[in-house]
Automatic annotation (TrEMBL):
Name of the protein in question: Prepilin-type N-terminal cleavage/methylation domain-containing protein
UniProt KW Transmembrane keyword: yes
Domain of life where this protein originates: Bacteria
Keywords linked to the UniProt accession: Membrane, Transmembrane, Transmembrane helix
Transmembrane segments: 12-33
Length: 164
């Protein structure tokens, strides 16, 4: 009898208890949401950085494969410059990295997702091996050149004209 009376005598939650539960729930949800949004932001930042690094690595490899054993390299400012037999030109046109050779092949090799500032620089100092320095944003990449002779009047430019 006493047990039944106690069960039936329950009044429920007071207003203060409900407010405390709602406040604690709000604090917990705020902490969870903050942690989640921070993780999402970090993921997108890392993904963007990874994509840029992947593009730079691809670009450097592509240039190295095409010009490393070139017999002549010239830095030029016009992509549509006339090409002689065995010559090709590579470089940037806006966010597109393009390749064109004298046989008529003209293609976009890669299109950067983020526009990068890119310039090419020939290093032909006597105390170091001949090399091509690719400045992508603030990151310089160097490619050592074999069997090389420079006919370039410019030390820095936008396109690389080379003889295969």
């Amino acid at each position: 009898m006493i047990l039944l009376k106690k069960i039936n005598d329950k009044d429920g939650f007071s207003l203060v208890e409900i407010i405390i539960i709602i406040a604690l729930g709000g604090i917990i949800l705020t902490a969870v949401f903050s942690s989640f949004s921070s993780g999402i932001r970090n993921f997108y930042f890392t993904e963007e950085k990874s994509a840029t690094q992947r593009e730079i690595r691809f670009l450097t490899s592509y240039i190295a494969e095409n010009i490393r054993n070139s017999t002549r390299i010239e830095l030029v400012s016009d992509y549509n410059e006339a090409l002689d037999s065995g010559e090709a030109i590579i470089g940037f046109d806006g966010a597109e990295f393009k390749y064109r050779d004298n046989s008529g092949t003209d293609r976009t090799v890669i299109e950067f997702t983020k526009t990068q500032t890119v310039s090419f620089e020939l290093n032909t100092e006597n105390n170091s091996p001949d090399s091509l320095i690719i400045n992508i944003g603030d990151v310089p990449r160097e490619i050592i050149l074999n069997n090389f002779s420079s006919t370039s009047a410019n030390d820095t430019d936008q396109y690389i004209k080379f003889k295969k």
